[in-house]
Amino acid sequence: MYQIIHRVGIAASPGEVYKALTTDEGLSTWWASDTSGAGEVGSIIQFRFNGEGPDFEVIELVTDSIVHWRHSGNMPEAWMGTEVSFRLQADEDQTYVLFLHENWKQSSDFMGHCSTKWAVFMLSLKQALETGMGRPHPHDIHIDHDE
Amino acid sequence: MYQIIHRVGIAASPGEVYKALTTDEGLSTWWASDTSGAGEVGSIIQFRFNGEGPDFEVIELVTDSIVHWRHSGNMPEAWMGTEVSFRLQADEDQTYVLFLHENWKQSSDFMGHCSTKWAVFMLSLKQALETGMGRPHPHDIHIDHDE
Asked: Is the reported ipTM for this assembly greater than 0.85?
C-alpha cells in the first residue's frame, strides 16, 4: 500500500482549523467551492469539481484533533478503498496539520498528480485561515496544462 | 519503505527541463540558490540552505529523460539511504516531470513536511521554466511558521 503525506503549520487555533475541515462553509474555502453534506460521523460529504465527485464518508471525528474520511460512492477508480485523514497538533503559535491519503494500491502518475494537488490544497487551507482568502476549485493553482 | 511522489506538467521542452535538473545554473533557479558541483554521473551536488546540506551523488542520467540522485555525506538523518529521481515525459504542449524521493524507512511528521516542501519546489521548477522566475531558497514559499 502507498500513501500521500503532507504537513503544514497554520497560524490559527485548532478549533478554527477543525471548523475548516468539518463544515460545508469551511471546506468550501479551500478545497471545492461546491461542497455539501459535511456533518457528524456517518455523513457523506459531496465535493464537486465541474459537477463531478468525489464523495467521502466521515468515519471518525475527535474535536479539534482528528478528521477521518473514507471514500464513498462517486470516486476516481484509483481512490477506491482509500482514506483521508487530518491530524491537528497545537504548537505555540500555530496548528500543525498532518494530512494522509492512505491505502493506494499502486504508485502511479495519477498518484503523483494527486500528491502535488493535495499540497496545493493544503497551502490553500493555510491561506484561507491566515488571510481569509483560500484558493478552492475553480480558483486553484494548476499544476499541469491538462487541468 | 515509504516514498514521496509528485507530478507536474511544464510548458517547456524535455531539453529545457533536463538542463534545469542537471546544471548548477538550472538547479539554482528553483531549489537552492546556493548550488554547486552538478555534472556527470559520479559528481556530488552540494545544495546549501543557510550554509547547510544536503549533498546528492548523481547516479544515473539519461539525456532529456531521467535524473537520479543518491544521498551523499551531509544529510538529514531521515534522508540517509534515500534516492531522488526525476522522470521526464514529453507530451503535446508540455513536459511531465514525475518526481520520486524513495526509500524512507518510516513515515513521520518530517516526511510530511518534506513532501509538501518538494511540491513547493516542483511548482518553483515549473514557474522558473515558464516565467523565467522560480522561487528557490531563500525565496521559497514557507509552509509553516518554524522555517
From this structure: yes
